[in-house]
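subagent[fold] <- orchestrator: predict structure for attached chain, return tokens only, no commentary.
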Amino acid sequence: MNQGELTIIPQQEIKPEIATPISSNCNWLEVYDAANLYVQQKRWSEAIAAYYSVIALNPSFFWSYHNSGDVLSQLERWDEAALMYRRAIQIDPNFFWSYHNLGDVLSQLQQWDEAALMYRRAIQIDPNFFWSYHNLGNVLSQLQQWDEAIAAYFNAIELDGNAALIYKKLGIALTERGNLAESIQYYRQVIRYPEGDATYERLRDCGELLWQIGNNLAQKHQNQAAIIVYYMVLEIEPDRLEILPQLEKLLQKHNQLQQHIVSRQQQIQSNPGRLCHYQSEIDNYETNIVSKNRGEKFFLSSNRQINPHELESLCEAVGWNRRPLDKVQKALNQSFLVVAIWEISNISPRLIGFARVVSDGVFHGTLLDTVIHPDFQNRGLGKKLISYIVTKLRKEGLKELILLASPSVADFYHSLGFVAQVNNLKWMLW
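subagent[fold] -> orchestrator:
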């Protein structure tokens, strides 16, 4: 990407927020040091005012613009943050973080195409940063550019194969791209003849990594995705015979699922007034929940991507304080399980319920951030949310789910089988 692809920002568009008047002979370095001190103290409004003062005194100083973008992001003033990062890039077009952070800001503004452009530019400068590939995959998924998103997720896994949520996102992308048979054919061809594609040229020499990716997808019940990756492994390592029993098992499950779906669709078509509820064998199934009293419809999902801004709006509706969106996104990424309830409407699905679990992945899980929108409480949605989580964790082999319940909701959790441990444990918070 050339610098010319960026929007040029006239200097006069940057309007300083100066707390007190400054003179032209003021030492801008002292003001800059003060701004940095405000950042350390998380005094964001004072920090941005000081950085704007530095810009007025020294309009060519790169760090005032880049740091202003960081502070404005903390304040969730996304348009202004984008303006500052663009100006920083104009001054120094080779600084990786300005492109990456601008990509994050543009994602918040849902300007997906330009966000993808910024992440790609960041990757050109530093091809070894996990989050640029991860975030690029998320943006491309929003654009439904599935093959490009899949390549980005593969690159991310090459850099950090221990990031658990990346496998779920890769699984969703491989499933969403379409027909299983066509996907198998396409990716067998891509991995055998990369034809200059750097991602698949590397993967072609990493059969063991692909094998591990397939295993991780299978463990997370991303069956269709695992089948595709296993075929990629066999395309480059046809002698890896240990893959065949697992592949056969997954194909049987997939075929059974397809037959099950066809059967249910026929039932619905023969009796349109009846809504068929059934539990899918794979995790990318979205469970329908119907409110019989009001005719409202909801679905419960553990695979749809959560917008941090939408989640914080839900939490704010029940009286919780808002949290920094970048930290919320990081918490989502590092969670073992994320489950949400969406209201189905004619416009777009609305997030009205949420919970997540952090876990060691073996013995224990901790339930966090359980919330149902006040407009939808007392309808049984909370019970369905918790029951779904418990079922999912059992499938993963976890034996204990821990939570910290206030007295006002303790009875609710007791009714779902949770037992208080008053005499054994004392919760402490640092």
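orchestrator: received. Logging for downstream: Strands lie at 287-291, 296-301, 337-343, 350-359, 364-372, 400-402. DSSP finds 18 helices and six strands in the chain.
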